[in-house]
Each structure stands twice: as structure tokens, then as C-alpha cells.
Amino acid sequence: MARRNFPLVLATCAVIVGVGLVGTAVYAKLSPTAKHTGGSGGGVSASASPTKSPEPPPPPTLNGDLPVTVTTPTGGFFAWAFYDRRTNKMTGSANSATKTNSTESMIKTWLVSDYLRRLGAKEPTTTALNYVKTAIINSNDNSASWLYRQDGGSAAISRMVKTCGLKGTKANSLGWAYTTMTAQDAVRLGLCVGDGRAAGEKWTDHVLSLMKQVQGTTAAKDQQKTTGGGHWGIIDGLPKNLVPETSIKNGWTMLYKDVLWHVNCLAVHDDWVLAVQVRIKPVKSASGQKDSAGLAAAAKVCATVAKQLTYQAPAA
């Protein structure tokens, strides 16, 4: 709590203000610098110290040392990892360094960054910039596949592992979306994008800006065959002050092999990087058609982790 200064007061004398008026006590803070004003009353003139207003508390942030409790989805999987860029400390769930999830569209952050960095001094075409934009903002799979081919296919995944120092990531011959990655590696990927290694000095700010413009929800109307709404997850669990400062890219697909939603949430901030991975059973409607409820449930898990890691420091 802030310390307040209250003036030490002392009634000095009664001064006759005028004929018929009541004498009034004059109070003043005594100090070595107080000066007598003279006159028959011998009054003391001194100014009181202004009262200090209490300092407001610092804005909330994320703290990776806070406990996270999430019930693992039945028949599914859950992991999270957090990297504090202020302390260079990695925290997370016990399985965050060993268990993997297919990256899905989360890896588009690398495909875009790798393409732009490798251009060097060459400027991208208008068409290429559109692919870069839509791969992130609309999670366009066709745009990502074009970038993947330009990046050399699986060679792009090898460069990602080397450039970003990934420890538990493997490429898949089926394509970019099937790349498997641990939660800790997802954080390392986010850090790689955030610190400029992925896109290079020229394009890093552009990539992070696109990640702040991601559009669409988990609703069925926003989920199309080759594009999908991806503005959900961690961003929904952040305190309001962090939302405009945070870049995100999620990855999500209903895989036919295990019939589970494979969901990844990635958020990059100047002070931290957070990744959450979830595999969860789909929810079927009465007609037997798969709806977006399973995806929404996974997105809620990502938001819950962010909420539990939110820390509000007390006022100074």
C-alpha cells in the first residue's frame, strides 16, 4: 500500500479577523524552514505537503508458475507449455516435452515465415503476398500448400527443426499438417517467429501483425472445406490489456484415423509464449452429423489455461 503523509498540526494563535468576528484557530505544519510573517499576531506561514494518490496496480500478465488444472478429455489428450521471455524459463504440463500432437494449421506460421525469409532482397509478388495473408488470417489450406511447395516441401520442416531448435518434432510424408510436435516445441516455434529467426528482420513484424488479424469463430458457418475461422482459444482467456498485444495461430482438424479433434493453440506476446494442445472427441447432433461443439470445447480448454495463468500483481 502507498504511504500517505499527514501534516502535523498545531494551533498557533487566535487572530482577530474583524470587529464582531469569532477568533479562528490557525493551523500550520511546523518545519525548520517555517518563517514568521511578523505583525502583532506573530503568525506562522507554512504550506502543507500534498497528499499522494495511491499508485494503480500494474496491468495483469501471464505467469507460468501458476497452477493449471484441466481434466483430460475422455479418450483424448491435453498438454500445455509456457515460455517466459523475461526470465527465459519454460514451464508446463508434465507431458509437454514428450507427448506430441499433429500441428495442423498452427504450422502455417512457419510456412509463411520461411517463405518470406528465403526471398532475401527479392520482393514477393502480389499473388504471393495474398497467399501469405490468407494462410494466416483465414487459415487457407490451399495458400499454405502453395507456400509449402515453394519452401521445398519436407525440407521446410527440416529447416524449422534446425532454425528453431525443436527437440520433439517430426515431418510426415502426408504433408505439412501431419507434422507432429510437442507442446514445448510449439512454444519454441512461437518464440522463433517472435524473435525474428523464422521470418527475418524484414518480415517478422508483418507476420506478427497478420497473426493479430486472424478471423472467424468455431461456429459451423465459419468452418469451410479449405478455410476456417481461427480467432478463439488462448485469446479468449487473456485479460483485456493483453489481447491487442498478442499474436495467435491455431491449428485444428477432425482426423479420420482416431476420429478426434486435433487442436493446437499458439499465442505470442513480447513477454511470453503459450501453447496448448488438445485431442477431444467430436460431439454429434441428433441427426448424427458432426458439429462444431467438439472444436468449441477444445477452444475452451485453451482459454481456460490462459485464464489460470493470468496474474494480477497487488498495488505498489
Q: Describe it for me?
A:
The chain has helices at 108-118, 126-137, 141-150, 154-164, 183-194, 200-211, 234-237, 293-309, and strands at 11-15, 24-27, 35-36, 44-45, 61-62, 77-84, 89-92, 100-102, 180-182, 247-255, 260-268, 272-280, 310-311. The chain has a 5-stranded antiparallel sheet with strand order 7-6-12-11-10, with helices on both faces. A two-stranded antiparallel ribbon has the order 1-2. Strands 3-4 form a two-stranded antiparallel sheet. It is an alpha+beta fold and 316 residues long. It is globular and about 75 Å long. The chain is 28% helix and 20% strand. Helix 1 (108-118) crosses helix 3 and helix 1 packs antiparallel against helix 6 (200-211). The model is unreliable at 1-42 (pLDDT under 50).
Low-confidence segments, given as residue ranges, are 1-42
**Mean pLDDT across all amino acids:** 86
What is the β-strand count? 13
Helix count?
8
